[in-house]
Design a protein that fits this description.
Layout (H helix, E strand, L loop, with lengths): L4 H23 L6 H8 L3 H8 L2 H25 L4 H14 L4 H15 L6 H19 L8 H21 L3 H17 L7
Helix pairs in contact: 1-2, 1-3, 1-4, 1-6, 3-4, 4-5, 4-6, 4-7, 5-8, 5-9, 6-8, 7-8, 8-9
InterPro entries: Homeodomain-like_sf, HTH-type_TetR-like_transc_reg, HTH_TetR, Rv0078-like_C
Pfam families: TetR_C_41, TetR_N
Keywords: DNA-binding
Amino acid sequence: MAKTRAETMEENRAKLIAAARKAFAEKGYAAASMDELTAEAGLTRGALYHNFGDKRGLFAAVVNQIDSEMAARAKAVAASEPDEWKALVAEGIAYIEMALDPEVQRIVLLDGPAVLGDPSKWPSQDNCLQVTQQAVERLIARGTMKPLDPEAAARLISGAALNAALWVAASQDAATVLPKAIEAFCAIASGVLTQHH
């Protein structure tokens, strides 16, 4: 049975994202060639422009895919923690630790903000923030967290994890910076707890 136009388009998008992900990880955004990338995907530049508008649009799709995978990996780590507060902290730590992954480091944490601007405005980060805010609301309702504005608390906890990951990724010695970043993240995050927790 012949593929529908929608199936072919989705297949082309997936091929372009896979080729771009490889190129951006190996060469960085600036040095990645759109001609090489489209040739590797077996497609034309026209397919790239049709699906993503331009190189930046393709890069945004790659960042969104990887950042969404990072959030899913962090959630999986958190899921093994029965205490919701500890789960929230474990999720932040897992996100920070991913800064050691060369693909995450180069594409999401180094090139991402340079090309796409403020990460807190990325769709993948916004989705993550909403999930964090729901957890914060539950923790406040249970009295585990101080009665803060849930959005403010969620933004600052998420922001602390993101900034720690950005710091680790940009450092000359990530392995030395990582434990310092995690220790400080945990100390800052624990400031929102009520005294009796």
